Structure formats: C-alpha cells, structure tokens
Amino acid sequence: MSMNDVNGLVDLPLPAVSARVEALRIDRGQSMARPETLAEEIPVALVFNGISHAVMMASPLDLEDFALGFSLTEGIIARPGELLDLEVVPLPTGVQVEMRIPEQRFAALKEQRRNLTGRTGCGLCGQDSLQHVIRPLSPVSTGAQVLFTDVLTAMDQLGALQPLNLATGAAHAAGWWYDGRITVREDIGRHNALDKLIGAVAHQPVRDGVLVISSRASYEMVHKAAAAGFAVLAAISAPTALAVRLAEETGLTLAGFVRGERLTVYSHPDRILR
C-alpha cells in the first residue's frame, strides 16, 4: 500500500520539470507574443524515520539522488549504506521523500533537529548556530592528478549536457568527470544540483577525476564537495575568499573561471598537471 493510499488519495505522478507559458517579448521597441518554457520548482520534504527534517525548493527530477546526497553532505548519515530505505511520494502540494536511517543516526539527528524552509538553492538555510554553519571536515584524500586539459574538457561536457537549462535558462548543473565520461545532474538550485550529483556517484571513486559546477564556488559548495570526498573542484565562475580558505584547510584543489582555454587555481595546484 502506498503512502497516498494511506492518506486516502489516489496515486499521483511526479510533477513536470518545466511548463509552457505565454509571454510578451519586447525587443528594440517591437513587441511580440510568444510561448516560453519555464523551469518548475516544487517543495520537497525530506522525512527521516517519519519526522520531517527539511523542506527544500527543488526541480522535480532525480529526487532519490538529491535525498541521498543531502543526507551525506549534511552529515545525517556517514556512508550511502546507512540510507536503509527511500520512497518518493508525490502529493498535491509537492513531493515527500520518505527515508529510513539507523536508530543511532536518527537519535543524533533529533539532537540537533531543525525545521527549515529552504529557498531555491539555499545551501545553509535554517542553521541555528554558527557552529553548525562552519562544521569541521576531515582532510580530503590525496586523489589522482588530472591534466589541465581534462578540467577544460570536463567543463565543456558539462555545458553540453544540461537539457533543463537549455530549455529554460534557469537551471544549474554539477558534473563528475572521470575516465573520459561525465555524470551530470541539474536543478534550479546550485546546491541542490551538487547534492543530486553526490547522491548519483556516492558509490564511485570520487577522489579521482574532476567535479565541475556551473556556478560560483561559494563556501557551501566547497564544503559539500570536501564532505563528499572530491579532490578537485572546478567552477565556471569565481570562488569566495572563505571558500578558498576552506579548500586550503581541507586539502581540496579549487579552480575558478574555468572558461575556454584558461582557469585559475586557488588552492593545492599540485593536482593539476600542465
């Protein structure tokens, strides 16, 4: 019996990831009615052992990956195998992701339980203290060295594999490039896209290869990357100063402004071979 049956509702499909609307384009004083494709965003409730922990606004795709990645980067579980069960339940008001974790993990979660309503792409919304925001991390494992050209190739491939952004112009992406292949996840929120990717590659040797993102490298993006064990993070835009300090402290190689034939390395440049 599904959760919808229990609630007296019929089974519902997942919401669409985009919608068509009529808009007015004004260009050089000339106006024209035209259809536009817009990205959808929905509330996604993340529920652990029957208790709602977080509600995030997200794109309604790859939600299993999102839930696993969020659980790992938030420290709710320590490894993928601790996510014992997962069910995505569409509801009239959004989507609920029901998860089951070990009792000791759930007890620790209740100790610091917080209710948060995450704005689109909000990486640290709802934290109730500075200590919870600036969480300590284990040092990043050494990781393999990568060629300068591999980082550029990874970013090029990321740009070519974003169907939601291509259709709407409103989505971010994160990709893991390894051994000539790339895994990509998209979302309206850059933090959500990274959590989705982390969930998708949670069983892979992520300390090798390159993590690429279609956004700036803010503190929380570096924090998530380091927490997941990536060794090289490359962003299409700039990092923040705090992000660079965190990357330096954790041993993460951080590159920014990865565009065309150039990039700038801000920490641990020894992993990138020229």
TrEMBL record:
InterPro entries: Cytidine_deaminase-like, FdhD. Required for formate dehydrogenase (FDH) activity. Acts as a sulfur carrier protein that transfers sulfur from IscS to the molybdenum cofactor prior to its insertion into FDH. Mo-bis(molybdopterin guanine dinucleotide) binds at F257, V258, R259, G260, E261, R262. The gene is fdhD. Its main location: cytoplasm. The active site is at C122. It is found in: Cytoplasm. Belongs to the FdhD family. Keywords: Cytoplasm, Molybdenum cofactor biosynthesis. This is Sulfur carrier protein FdhD. PANTHER family: FORMATE DEHYDROGENASE (PTHR30592), SULFUR CARRIER PROTEIN FDHD (PTHR30592:SF1).
